[in-house]
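Structure first, sequence second, as always.
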């Protein structure tokens, strides 16, 4: 179980990741508790479908679980394109800010929530506890094609963010490159994690967005239920939780 703490405008906030059924993660000393990917169906949390990939399988078995098209793109990627893979186990603030800017350009085009100062602080706090992994693919001109960010605990990795500018590009060859690079990055991450002793790759949730859901399901795995949400312990926590919900519905 991973825990990080912060205080915002006098409100004490705790974020928890990967709490097990035997854990009792809720602390009464904080105003608001955010829980992500809990195995425990704690009252107040929402059930969430997620896709779990077993990294104890060998590489060929992992590839065999994927759709034919995804498998072909991954195998062809290093032959057809000069792709540069980067892994940051302790990303600097500059690297986190680079990701934030890249992601927010993606988010504006997709009309989804951006990566704000709270989210940046979350990544920094996770990084400071060695629970953040940032990866990216660049082209031969060192231009970033896609990013991925994970919460990690040494055994499992759960996707926190992914971003590609696929839908910002009209040029067909470039779109093809971005499509391949996005899949290749996910595959390279799976193998890096596997080779570093990780057992589980968690996609971080199967959304109702058909394109995202379809992309995630291309990689195989088992659909399982986890629980996420916010639990308020105090009046201040309830106010912040209410404001957050109002923003999410806009």
């Amino acid at each position: 179980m991973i825990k990080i703490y912060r205080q915002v405008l006098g409100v004490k906030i705790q974020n928890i990741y990967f709490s097990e059924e035997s854990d009792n993660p809720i602390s009464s000393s904080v105003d608001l508790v955010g829980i992500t990917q809990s195995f425990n169906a704690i009252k107040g949390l929402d059930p969430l479908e997620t896709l779990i990939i077993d990294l104890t399988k060998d590489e060929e078995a992992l590839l065999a679980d994927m759709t034919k098209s995804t498998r072909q793109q991954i195998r062809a990627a290093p032959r057809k394109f000069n792709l540069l893979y980067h892994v940051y186990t302790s990303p600097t603030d500059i690297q986190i800010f680079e990701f934030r800017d890249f992601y927010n350009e993606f988010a504006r085009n997709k009309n989804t929530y951006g990566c704000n100062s709270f989210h940046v602080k979350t990544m920094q706090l996770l990084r400071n506890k060695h629970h953040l992994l940032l990866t990216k693919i660049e082209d031969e001109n060192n231009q970033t094609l896609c990013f991925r960010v994970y919460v990690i605990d040494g055994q499992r990795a759960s996707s926190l963010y992914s971003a590609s500018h696929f839908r910002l590009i009209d040029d067909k060859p470039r779109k093809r490159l971005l499509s391949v690079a996005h899949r290749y990055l996910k595959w390279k991450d799976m193998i890096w994690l596997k080779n570093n002793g990780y057992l589980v790759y968690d996609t971080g949730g199967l959304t109702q967005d058909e394109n995202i859901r379809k992309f995630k399901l291309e990689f195989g795995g088992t659909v399982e239920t986890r629980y996420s949400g916010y639990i308020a312990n105090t009046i201040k926590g309830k106010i912040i939780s209410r404001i957050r919900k109002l923003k999410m519905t806009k």
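Margin note: The chain has one domain: 49-224.
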